[in-house]
User: Fold Prostaglandin F2-alpha receptor from Lonchura striata.
Amino acid sequence: MNSSKSPGLAGFGILKNTTCHTEKKISVFFSIIFMTVGILSNSLAIVILMKAYQRFRQKSKASFLLLASGLVVTDLFGHLINGAIAVFVYASDKDWIRFNQSNILCSVFGICMVFFGLCPLFLGSVMAVERCIGVTKPIFHSTKMTSRHVKMMLTMVCLFAVLIALLPILRFRAYQIQASRTWCFYKTEHVEDWEDRFYLLLFSCLGFLALAISFLCNAVTGITLLRVKFKSQQRQGRSHHFEMIIQLLAIMCVSCICWSPFLVI
Assistant:
């Protein structure tokens, strides 16, 4: 009786191991594909933006291009760092106990997820504000929005995102491995402590605030440009504004589609 069951059990075990191995290869493959596509597309965007910045260095478009470059560079490093960690986790069979005994990797992964999640949203909203000022207050924009001021804004946005990402570490709160065991983030399951809830609400509120600012500023910019276009049929000097607002709307739509469900949950 035992001998009759052994071949079936052995076959089931072989099939299970083969299936797990195949799933692991597929997960690693897709992680590498997504990371590679993100890196290549952002690298191409950086080259295009740098060439455009050299052409428009002394014009009103320069500040927008500088902010767009910051956004693309941030997204590039997000794909590179988070993607590399995700590939390593999948390749290691998600065995966090083996490679994360001191919780260092999970903490780094969590910090990167928060930083590279919030920073592009912040930069997108700053770009929308910059265009809104450029269209509604062109004189103020041309005199006050210099490259030095834009670089200061970029630095402040990045530092603020770093601060938010480091808050749990500064408060001696560890980032948690999530249910799928493929990434780390704030504690999202069985949240009872007020501080854990605060981090989640802070992340969501800041993300929604950035999206709301982008929506409001893009709406004001678009309405202003349409009014100017209908009042005077002169398109010269305004075409690049329409080009930039279309780019901003595309960034905002992608951000809303990608982030809104996660921020709500």
